[in-house]
Write a structure and sequence with these properties.
Blueprint (H helix, E strand, L loop, with lengths): L2 H48 L2 E8 L3 E8 L5 E2 L4 E4 L2 E4 L5 E5 L7 E2 L4 E7 L13 E5 L5 E7 L1
Parallel strand pairs: 1-10
Antiparallel strand pairs: 1-2, 2-8, 3-7, 4-5, 4-9, 6-8, 9-10
């Protein structure tokens, strides 16, 4: 073999080495991102599976809409992160328009299993007319699990 064959072989080997050192980190980062995304999907699915609650009743007493819900799941929820829909109109549970209490305690936001969340909304803060039997409330928690009930007097 001549010098030119040896030199061209060395250049090809060096080029393959540099190509591999560039390709490997890109492939490893892509694999890590896919693995992290799959892990996140599995975590959210487990959270939904462990979340269960029931809207036990929803009442309206001429001035205040009161919604009671019991956490039947094994996962603790944050009361202020819940979403309340009254006749498909959004009510900010964590905002100034609604008052939340967990088993009668208004100082906590943590809604654990077996505890009852009470949400009270004044009629003036509702953009929909609340009438007994004509209004439906839907409570949705942060994982997307929801339950509904009809409003009674």
């Amino acid at each position: 073999m001549g010098v030119s064959v040896s030199a061209s072989t060395a250049i090809i080997v060096a080029g393959l080495f540099f190509a591999f050192t560039t390709f490997y980190p890109v492939a490893a980062n892509g694999f890590d991102r896919v693995s992290d995304a799959q892990h996140g999907i599995n975590e959210r699915a487990l959270e939904r599976q462990n979340t269960a609650f029931t809207v036990t009743n929803a009442t309206f007493d001429d001035t205040t809409l009161t919604v009671n819900a019991t956490n039947d799941g094994s996962l603790g929820l944050v009361a202020g992160d819940a979403t309340l829909l009254v006749d498909n109109v959004y009510v900010d549970v964590g905002g100034p328009n609604a008052t939340t209490t967990v088993d009668g305690n208004g100082d906590t936001e943590l809604w654990l299993g077996g505890e009852t969340l009470t949400i009270e909304v004044d009629e003036g803060d509702l953009s929909t007319g609340v009438a007994a039997g004509e209004t439906r409330v839907v409570l949705v928690v942060e994982s997307g699990v929801r339950d509904a009930a009809e409003v009674s007097a």
